[in-house]
Amino acid sequence: MSAANEQTPAAGLDVERIRRDFPILAEQSHGHPLVFLDSAASAQKPQQVIDAMSEFYSHDYANIHRGVYELSQRATDAFEAAREKVRAFLNAGEAREIVFVRGTTEAINLVAMTHGRKHVGAGDEILITAMEHHSNIVPWQLLCEDRGANLVVAPIDDRGALLLDEFEKRLSPRTRMVAVTHVSNALGSVNPVREITRLAHERGVPVLVDGAQAVPHGRIDVRELDCDFYAFSSHKLFGPTGIGVLYGRSELLESMPPYQGGGEMILTVSFEKSTWAEIPHKFEAGTPDIAAAIGLGAAIDYLGEVGFDHIAVHERDLLEYGTALLDAIPGLRMIGTAADKAAVLSFVLDGVHPHDVGTILDQEGIAVRTGHHCAQPVMDRFEVPATTRASVALYSTRAELDALARAILKTQEIFT
Ligand code: PLP
Question: How far apart are CA 35 and CA 83, in angstroms?
């Protein structure tokens, strides 16, 4: 592994030091050093995140926003400090624009069921792209069924890049919402979000961005992107599961009805009528995953210390290195070759089902994802049943990609 580090020209990022922060990377799998190439599904956690949560449970734990006693105050302060860290990470204008949810999926459902139900009627349209994850398709389908509206899909080209002119053509006077992924989980394609928001806003249409696959790879600036909603999950950002974020412009969040009812989200309750708390609490019914929010804050601190620019340089190197390695393997076809791409190497092998590829790689200690990646329409677009997807993160190395390429060659030998 250290040899790999020497080869990696990512000045500024000490990958070996970073790897020591992630205890799981020292694990073995089937008698081999673990090669974890499935960070796009869920990223591993640095000790700093694990410690922050353990410290919180050991020393500061209590329910939040309710207690008058000191411990509850400390817990509330830590939870709200995490919200402020998320605000800074996204460069949102105000902390009240940050709603804690369970993850990207819940964030998108929240917008569809509140903003969507309020503004979408019969014959209206929701515009998405052909590269969306199921969680940015199905909530809109449910809304369309409920309202008699139509889901409109902007196509992608053979490399997996959005056809922006086709997207623009599909923005109609009936479009009520645009919902696009920032980075495709199945292809790695990066969408031109700034252009998309410009085109949509010219027509007065709000834009939701699914940032699940974008946040691990760089700092996000929601004001620069000029999006109306931005959703992501902590677990892909080296934080814990159970928490995620919906950023929403304050004026939109204020105008939306609540999503779920219960404690925390109310101002007053009587049997005749209840009134709602201010944003973001209006959308945070019930006791949240307090420790997870603190873990997410610690993950953001960690990434800030490593340096987002360094991470981007390292990952670009890995993507180029891995692409060249896989391209050189006869019988391997990359799925997703857009010019602007992040962290994902998706491929199919002639004559070998992706599940078989995954099984052989697993025997070599290599963890990759095989299947449709919750993006079945993408598989249909490329006429494949599934792909094998290797995905890299800040702790990945060239040596791990070398191991991947060797194991693919071994798979081919077994199956021919
Ligand atoms: N959107 C994209 C692009 C994803 O990759 C994922 C997860 O793989 C999701 C949404 C859903 O995220 P979660 O399951 O954390 O809600």
Answer: 33
CATH T-level topology, domain 50-304: Aspartate Aminotransferase; domain 2 (3.40.640)
For the record, the structure tokens of 147 come out as 């309202």
Query: For this structure, is 374 an active site residue?
Result: yes
Q: Is the CB of 105 under 6 A from ligand 1?
A: yes
Stated pTM of the model: 0.96
Residue ranges of domains in the chain: 15-46+307-415, 50-304
Report the alpha-carbon distance of residue 120 to residue 363 in Å, rounded: 50
- Cα 172 from Cα 188, distance rounded (Å): 28
In CATH, 15-46+307-415 is 3.40.630.30: no
Atom of ligand 1 lying closest to residue 241 CA: 15
Digit-by-digit pLDDT tens for the chain (416 residues) are 233 333 444 457 899 999 999 999 999 999 999 999 999 999 999 999 999 999 999 999 999 998 889 999 999 999 999 999 999 999 999 999 999 999 999 999 999 999 999 999 999 999 999 999 999 999 999 999 999 999 999 999 999 999 999 999 999 999 999 999 999 999 999 999 999 999 999 999 999 999 999 999 988 999 999 999 999 999 999 999 999 999 999 999 999 999 999 999 999 999 999 999 999 999 999 999 999 999 999 999 999 999 999 999 999 999 999 999 999 999 999 999 999 999 999 999 999 999 999 999 999 999 999 999 999 999 999 999 999 999 999 999 999 999 999 999 999 999 98
CA of residue 319 to ligand 1 center, whole Å: 21
Pair of tokens at residue 358: 């995954």
- Cα(68) to ligand 1 centroid in Å equals 37
Gap from CA of 106 to ligand 1 centroid (Å)? 10
CA distance 49 to 54: 9
